[in-house]
Specification:
The protein is of the alpha+beta class and 384 residues long. The chain is 36% helix and 18% strand. The protein is built from twelve helices and 13 strands. The strands form three sheets. Strands 1-4-5-6-7-8 form a six-stranded mixed beta sheet, sandwiched between helices. It is globular, with a radius of gyration of 21 Å. The protein starts with a helix and ends with a helix. It binds D-MYO-inositol-1,4-bisphosphate (2IP) and calcium ion (CA).
Length: 384
């Protein structure tokens, strides 16, 4: 199964390349940042270019994975639906065709005949970028393609991707917003239990070369299956009490829109309200925990989905951490039960509608060290 991981790293790099091309090529960039106002808004062009780019990336991943592992066809899911309606009110199913020319022709039908944009996008989809990932030679992943399913988030933190603010990243330091928050997330889980077992994260905008002005990406991967645990990120050094080495209190990252009651409950654990950290992107916040720039990511709302958390969750499990359902943990803790509520990925909430079917309903806590989770749950108990 190291072959599946290799392929996912490759398709994630291809996806990152499409994301970069959409910002680099002027005709695509103009479509990406266009505000739908006035006349444009009235056109029967239901979805926008940003969604089209996401759909195309998702379809490309489905296509490439299904071609190499036919057992996985039908078990690859993502945030987007590939049904589009064009300016003439026609319904078009966006797929990756056998050739670049055919894909360009199909894309032109949803881009209101914009052939230039359609062929630039098709070229990026059909291009195989040079890949630079190496996996440990002895990496053995005890999984078979017929027992796994995939969640894809083609671009997480789309608002940061569109805004496009450039930041210079420092290792171990959390940068709250900017292009680096946009991530390609591919998570693998077991079909029968929903346990996340493999994850690939690609950060398309990790470093901008000052000489060329071109962006370089960075990738991260992790595998967690039984006793086999491997991750491209090494575990930060010992953290007594669950906090970062040398730090006296816990460091927690939150969504900028987190509730006041949650902030007030966590503040004493973190050394004050002003010590709480905020960052954009659900995947990016879990990556901050993976990389050790935060001890935990706490979210009280049901505003993340299976495709946001599956991939980074697998990396955290590979490192000995996890992602749990916050409300379920609080219930267990109040009932005096063992706190054990790792999020799973296989069961839809049939009582919900639309994307909510796949929401992480009870909010979440992402942690590297179980001690951090217990401190967070202790602090929030009886407060939500
Ligand atoms: C979003 C994105 C947002 C996040 C939200 C996700 O995914 O990661 O940034 O909100 O939960 O669903 P916040 O930044 O407040 O945590 P997408 O960009 O793919 O819609
Ligand atoms: Ca997302």
């Amino acid at each position: 199964m190291a072959d599946v991981l290799r392929l996912l790293l490759q398709v994630a790099e291809k996806a990152a390349n499409v994301a970069r091309v959409c910002r680099q090529e002027v005709p695509l960039f103009q479509l990406l940042v266009q505000e739908k106002t006035g006349h444009d808004k009235n056109k029967e062009f239901v979805q926008d270019f940003k969604t089209l780019a996401d759909v195309v990336i998702q379809e490309m991943i489905c296509h490439d994975v299904g071609a190499q592992f036919p057992e996985m066809t039908g078990f690859i899911h993502g945030e987007e639906s590939n049904k589009f309606e064009n300016g003439l009110g026609e319904s078009v199913t966006v797929t990756v065709c056998a050739t670049e020319v055919e894909t360009a022709a199909l894309l032109a039908t949803v881009l209101d005949g914009d052939k230039m944009a359609a062929s630039l996008l098709a070229r990026a989809i059909h291009q195989d970028p040079a890949t630079s990932h190496t996996l440990p030679e002895d990496l053995d992943v005890p999984l078979s393609p017929s027992e796994i399913s995939i969640w894809i988030d083609p671009i997480d933190a789309t608002s940061q991707y569109i805004d496009g603010r450039e930041e210079v990243l420092e290792e171990g330091h959390l940068s709250p917003s900017g292009l680096h928050c946009a991530l390609v997330l591919i998570g693998v889980y077991l079909r029968n239990t929903g346990e996340p077992v493999m994850g690939v994260i690609n950060q398309p905008f990790n470093y901008k070369d000052p000489a060329t002005g071109c962006w370089r990406g960075k990738h991260f991967w992790g595998v967690s299956r039984g006793n086999v645990k491997a991750c491209s990120v090494s575990r930060p050094e010992g953290r007594p009490g669950g906090s970062r080495k040398g730090a006296e209190s816990l460091s927690v990252v939150l969504s900028p829109s987190e509730k006041q009651v949650v902030k007030e409950a966590l503040a004493p654990l973190c050394g004050g309200l002003d010590k709480l950290m905020y960052a954009s992107g659900a995947g990016h916040k879990i990556l901050c925990v993976i990389q050790g720039s935060a001890d935990a990511y706490v979210l009280s709302e049901r505003s993340t989905f299976k495709w946001d958390s599956c991939a980074p969750h697998a990396l955290l499990r590979a490192l000995g951490g996890g992602v749990v359902d916050l409300r379920e943990c609080l219930r267990q803790s109040s009932a005096g039960e063992v706190v054990e509520a790792e999020i799973t990925y296989h069961q839809p909430r049939t009582e919900s509608k639309g994307a909510d079917i796949w929401a992480n309903q009870g909010g979440l806590v992402a942690y590297l060290n179980p001690a951090s989770l217990h401190i967070v749950i202790g602090g929030l108990k009886g407060k939500l």
